[in-house]
Amino acid sequence: MRKYNIRTLEDLKAAKLELKVEYTLKQNMLKSDGKTFLKQFTIGALIKKYATPNNLFKADEKLNISGTAMSLLLPMVMNKTLFRGAGFLTKAAVGLVSGKVGKSLDAEHLSAIFNSVKGWFGKKKVQKAKKFVDYGIPPDSETY
Fold first, then answer.
1. Side-chain half-sphere exposure of 37, counting CA atoms within 13 A
2. Predicted model pTM
3. Which of 45, 44, 51 is CA-nearest to residue 65?
């Protein structure tokens, strides 16, 4: 505990003001430290920290999370979209086959499929730009 050398009313007021300033500074520091502490537990921060591609591949090798998820999601998606008007037997067969295919998919296969689909859309832009250059139009002109 502090010892205060207060002898006059002015000393008391000065000590009171000093304590008030110190209290306010500590309050602001505590609030800012609390905010930074809580920010590390938000969903975005946890995803940035733990959902990196290397961590996902390591976890997927051990637990096959992506295969399990795909074996559950793929039959539902196929039956709701492609085989909407199909009968019971067709939906059951599609569910069994797509469930088996989904189990065989892992994170590497899924990322390769995603990159190939992404590549289909990326090549069209490059071909379009090349087409304009072939006609003598620079790609950054207004017609592009």
1. 6
2. 0.39
3. 51
Q: How confident is the model at residue 13 (pLDDT cuts 50, 70, 90)?
A: very high
Among 69, 67, 97, 60, smallest CA distance to 82 is for 97
* Per-residue pLDDT reduced to its tens digit, 29-56: 999 999 999 988 888 887 777 767 666 6
Read off the amino acid at residue 84: R
- Measure the N-to-C terminal CA separation of the chain; round to a whole number of Å: 75
Concatenating the DSSP letter of every residue in 5-61 gives ---SHHHHHHHHHHHHHHHHHHHHHHHHHHHHHHHTTSHHHHHHHH--HHHHHHHHH
Residue 15 contacts residue 4 (beta carbons within 8 Å):
yes
Residues 6+ apart with CB under 8 A from 68: 103
Selected residue with higher pLDDT from 139 and 49: 49
Could you tell me the CA-to-CA distances from 79 to 65, 75, 87, 103, 116 in Å, in that order? 22, 6, 10, 17, 24
- Band (pLDDT 50/70/90 cuts) for residue 83 is confident
Q: Which residue has the higher pLDDT, 88 or 114?
A: 88
Two tokens at 76? 């539902």
